[in-house]
């Protein structure tokens, strides 16, 4: 808005209403899941003499935030009693759309549809429920608009997705750094904190300026690879806050300080996805890319 961007901004995470002044002043559209929000937003709307457009969230099975679908009539009655509050949308969310079996998600669609059928509301509002996984595997949940998340980054929501179209996603993020030092070490050399890795041969070790302070999780120590000169090289030793080590012995004679190191992404014919770290940590690719800290520069390409 301040930068000339003209769009509708929907605030997806409900709060206690403490953002109400900014919401009202800037025409933002908050997701509402409690009467606390409704009261606070209404008071601020009246104070600023504006209308606040809200998206009412109903919990059809996520168990996180949202009004009870069975109380839809009461919710709508209360909303009508709050000055300055206008309904911009009805929404819900899927917790299991990425499982490959849409049965539970279809039950949710039914519950959400019941809310819509009971809601005799007129006006310009939208209905939305589908996340990335549902866009592929639960098309019945794609009401007026969808809310893609992980798919926007070109990452597959899960390996269980049935729709082959999900395999056409291409990651948009690469995470790169450079070698700051190369060091020859003899067999039996302990590396990094705790000497969690000890060389068993004459080794060429590269230092790179990336660590858990940047989002490269410490439990990944000695468990992942990085790309150097188009080759996979093992990370060795405990990952530090700001640095870690890579065994580049196989590149001796070719590698040098300043060479690019790819943590996530493609280099030459090789590719390492966020899924590699996710598998080692027992988590999802979404956590890997979102944990990359703010001190890592973001460089838009093309």
Helix-residue proportion: 10-25%
Distance between the termini: 24 Å
Overall structural class, as computed from helix and strand content, comes to alpha/beta
Largest sheet: 8 strands, antiparallel
Computed over alpha carbons, the radius of gyration is 25 Å
Helix count equals 7
Envelope shape = elongated
Low-confidence stretches: none
Layout of helices and strands:
Elements: E1 10-11, H1 20-26, E2 29-32, H2 35-48, E3 52-57, H3 72-80, E4 85-91, H4 103-118, E5 126-128, H5 132-137, E6 175-178, E7 181-185, E8 190-191, E9 197-198, E10 203-208, E11 225-228, E12 231-236, E13 244-247, E14 260-267, E15 270-272, H6 274-281, H7 285-290
Parallel strand pairs: 1-2, 2-3, 3-4, 4-5
Antiparallel strand pairs: 6-14, 7-10, 8-9, 10-13, 11-12, 11-14, 12-13, 14-15
Helix pairs in contact: 1-2
Describe this entry's structure for a reader.
With 302 residues, the protein is α/β, with parallel strands linked by helices. 22% of the residues lie in helices and 22% in strands. The protein folds into 2 domains: 10-163, Alanine racemase (TIM Barrel); 175-290, Lyase, Ornithine Decarboxylase, Chain A, domain 1 (Beta Barrel). A hairpin with a 5-residue loop joins strand 8 and strand 9. The relative contact order is 0.09. The radius of gyration is 25 Å and the shape is elongated. The chain has helices at residues 20-26, 35-48, 72-80, 103-118, 132-137, 274-281, 285-290, and strands at 10-11, 29-32, 52-57, 85-91, 126-128, 175-178, 181-185, 190-191, 197-198, 203-208, 225-228, 231-236, 244-247, 260-267, 270-272.
């Amino acid at each position: 808005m301040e930068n000339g961007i003209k769009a509708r901004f929907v605030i997806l995470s409900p709060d206690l209403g403490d953002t109400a002044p900014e919401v009202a002043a800037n025409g933002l559209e908050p997701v509402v899941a409690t009467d606390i929000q409704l009261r606070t937003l209404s008071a601020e709307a009246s104070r600023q003499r504006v209308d606040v457009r809200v998206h009412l969230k109903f919990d059809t099975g996520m168990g996180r935030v949202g009004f009870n679908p069975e109380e839809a009539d009461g919710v709508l009655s209360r909303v009508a009693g709050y000055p300055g509050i206008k309904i911009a949308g009805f929404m819900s969310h899927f917790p299991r759309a990425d499982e490959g079996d849409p049965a539970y998600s279809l039950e949710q669609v039914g519950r959400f549809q019941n809310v819509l059928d009971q809601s005799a509301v007129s006006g310009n509002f939208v209905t939305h429920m589908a996340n990335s996984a549902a866009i592929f595997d639960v098309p019945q949940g794609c009401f007026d608009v969808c809310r893609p998340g992980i798919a926007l980054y070109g990452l597959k929501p899960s390996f269980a997705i049935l729709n082959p179209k999900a395999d056409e996603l291409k990651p948009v993020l690469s995470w790169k750094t450079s070698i700051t030092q190369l060091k020859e070490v003899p067999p039996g050399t302990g590396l990094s904190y705790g000497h969690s890795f000890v060389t068993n041969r004459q080794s060429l070790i590269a230092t790179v300026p990336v660590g858990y302070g940047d989002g490269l999780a410490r439990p990944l120590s000695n468990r992942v690879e990085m790309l150097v000169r188009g080759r996979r090289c093992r990370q060795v030793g405990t990952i530090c806050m700001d640095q870690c080590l890579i065994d580049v012995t196989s590149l001796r004679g070719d590698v040098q300080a300043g060479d690019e190191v790819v943590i996530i992404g493609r280099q030459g014919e090789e590719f390492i996805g966020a899924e590699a770290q996710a598998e080692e940590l027992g988590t999802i690719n979404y956590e890997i890319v979102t944990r990359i800290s703010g001190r890592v520069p973001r460089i838009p390409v093309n």
